[in-house]
Amino acid sequence: MNKTKLHEMMQLQDKFNATVDPIWREDEHRCDNTAMLVEAGELIDHLGFKWWKHQVPNIKQAQMELVDIWHFLMSDLIRSFPEEAIAALDDDSVLFDGVLDVIKGGMINEAEMTEAERTRAAIKTATVFIAATACDMNELSSTPSDEESPQFESVFPSHVLKVQMFSSLMLELQVTESMLYKWYIGKNALNNFRQANGYKTGEYIKHWNNQEDNEVLVDIIELAGDRAGLFDHVLSELDKSYQMYAKKVA
Asked: Which run of H or E residues covers position 212?
């Protein structure tokens, strides 16, 4: 991942958040940490952690939950580093350099693990991520004042830990940096599609033709390959499926 892609994703996230809530950066009722706790719990559930019953891990959906966590982790970073997050890129960007350094540090090659070992490791890492996030619930109280010049690692150690755990989950779930970028673009498109079709007001239909919309998205992205204009392509394909299946049910 490079600064340009990270900047693009943060811009898309800021724009989407503003669509849902124009004052999202200052909204004291918003808590991205709570959202990350929920998504991390769902990630663990997809990995089949319940030893007392038969479960088949669904790695694809666990990967999707990791992308969902990325949405809220970026939102958390934007609120903590409001100027750094959306400002024009430069070589002195504390936020971009800090996040990228932590991610790069976690993406080193480790000894080969079996899929079962990766799954168990991911469950443990997600649990640590939850613990770190729970310890940082009052996120707005740690936002620096305008007079401060925040340093990513020294001022926000909790953010560093969350990014570290996120990076470890990428490795354990075999989500590459390019995959994270591609899946984020796709999920951002789905989130925008949901809002445009009544997700917040309750009219949206989430299950289409016996599939949840997240599962429909997985199929669309896998078939899309590395095509340009992924965001617009996903929106178009989602609309086709929604009109064909969901609307008929309604």
From this structure: strand 211-212
Tell which of 115, 145, 175 closes a domain.
175
Distance CA(117)–CA(109), nearest Å, equals 15
Residue 225, number of CB atoms within 10 A of its CB: 8
Asked whether residue 149 falls in the same domain as residue 194, the answer is no
Read off the pLDDT of residues 41-71 as tens digits, 9 standing for 90 and up: 999 999 999 989 999 999 988 999 999 999 9
Q: pTM score, two decimals?
A: 0.81
In the three-class reduction of DSSP (H, G, I as helix; E, B as strand; rest coil), residue 1 is classed as: coil
Q: Tokens 């580093």 identify what position?
A: 81
| Residue type, position 232, single letter | D
Q: Are residues 122 and 166 located together in one domain of the fold? A: yes
Residue 226 contacts residue 216 (beta carbons within 8 Å): no
Domain end point (choices 123, 141, 175): 175
| Beta strand pairing call for 211-212 and 207-208 | antiparallel
AA identity, residue 172: E
CA atoms within 13 A on the CB side of 50: 10
For 209, what's the count of Cα atoms within 13 Å in the CB-facing half-sphere?
Answer: 10
Four-CA torsion 17, 18, 22, 24, nearest 10 degrees: 30
In this structure, the number of other CB atoms found within 10 A of the CB of residue 53 comes to: 6
Q: Which of 121, 234, 150, 250 is nearest to 186 (CA)?
A: 234
